[in-house]
Amino acid sequence: NLFYYIAKHAGVRTDIVRGLANNTVRIDGHVWIFAYVNKNQGILLDPTWGAGYVSGLDFYKREDCWEWFNVDPKLMILTHFPDDESYQFLEKPVTKEEFLDFTTNPDINWVKNGISADYIFQKALEKDLSFPYLSRDFKDVLEIVSIPLTSTLKVGETYTFSLRPKINIYDMAIRCNDNWYDNWEISEDGTYTMTITLCCEGLLRIRTKMYERGSYGDEVF
């Protein structure tokens, strides 16, 4: 409501969209915004989710409020189901049954790190939305060229990782327990590529070593 009235006084036409929201904990009634940028076009945003969240009696401000500003409709529908399907802005609207059947909410970091909204939407429809965890720092450290887009890899299977550092690093490794993989091939454009066959069970991590640090930095994958 606050966004609606501020926008109104600023001369920006907005619609309050009513529907359901899936916040990973439960599905509740919710409202969000469609703001017009011209007569026939606009953007989807959720000022409530952008502001932060409440846990118990405490409010926690979201670090990046822009995550929920100008959201791609194919991402918005994974967590926001409008009562009026015209606010889906999809060529083929999602049914309520499909929305309730989505198994995992999207991580905004997927898009920030180069995974397209089209791909995420299609995988959600296929009930295969199980991408790897990418830290908030990932986008500042590495650019994805190609990685396995699944949260679970299989021992004995072979996978290729292709990443391009965005910062000045002098080493990078993939670690699984005490097994380290660092036999990268580095192309002229600075892309690090390595094919590995996993030999153990455990949590797989990509770690980078930067010039300003003497040891490997935070895990980013």
Strands, helices and their partners?
Elements: H1 2-9, E1 14-22, E2 27-36, E3 42-45, H2 47-51, E4 52-55, E5 58-61, E6 69-71, H3 73-76, E7 80-82, H4 96-101, H5 108-112, H6 117-125, H7 138-141, E8 142-146, E9 158-165, E10 169-176, E11 179-181, E12 185-186, E13 192-197, E14 204-210, E15 216-219
Antiparallel strand pairs: 1-2, 1-7, 2-3, 3-6, 4-5, 8-9, 9-13, 10-11, 10-14, 12-13, 14-15
Percent in helix: 10-25%
Kindly estimate the percentage of residues that lie in beta strands according to DSSP.
35-45%
Q: Uncertain regions: pLDDT < 50 for 5+ in a row? A: none
The SS-based structural class is alpha+beta
User: What composes the largest sheet?
Assistant: 5 strands, antiparallel
The shape is elongated
- How many helices? The count is 7
Description:
- The structure is a single chain.
- This protein is of the alpha+beta class.
- It is 19% helix and 36% strand.
- It has seven helices and 15 strands.
- The protein has helices at residues 2-9, 47-51, 73-76, 96-101, 108-112, 117-125, 138-141; strands at 14-22, 27-36, 42-45, 52-55, 58-61, 69-71, 80-82, 142-146, 158-165, 169-176, 179-181, 185-186, 192-197, 204-210, 216-219.
- The strands form four sheets. Strands 6-3-2-1-7 form a five-stranded antiparallel β-sheet. It has a four-stranded antiparallel β-sheet with strand order 8-9-13-12. The chain has a four-stranded antiparallel β-sheet with strand order 11-10-14-15, with no helix packed on it.
- Strand 14 (204-210) and strand 15 form a beta hairpin.
- The radius of gyration is 20 Å and the shape is elongated.
